[in-house]
Amino acid sequence: MSYKIVFSQESLEKLRDLENEIAARIIRKLEAASENPQRFFERLAGRQEYKLRIGDYRVIANIIVSENIVLIRTLGHRKNIYEQR
Q1: pLDDT (0 to 100) of residue 84
Q2: What's the domain range around 31?
Q3: Which of its termini does the chain have fewer beta carbons within 10 Å around, N or C?
Q4: CATH assignment at residue 62
C-alpha cells in the first residue's frame, strides 16, 4: 500500500526556492519512496526523524506507519540541513 506524502509549510517554502530541475528530482524520488518508505528512508541517529538522500540534497521526514503517511518536515542541501535542527 502506498503512503501519502504530506508537506509541512517549511518544506513547501524550501522546495519553491530550489531550482526547478532539483525540485522535480526531489518530487520524483518522493513519489518512488511513497511505495515503500522504509526501503528509501534512513533513521537519523538519536532522533525520531528519517532522512532521504537525493544527490546533494536531503529530505527530513517522519514516517507515520499507523496512518500510512510520510510527513516531510524540511529539506535542503546536505551541507546545512542538519544545522537547522
Answers
A1: 54
A2: 4-84
A3: N
A4: 3.30.2310.20
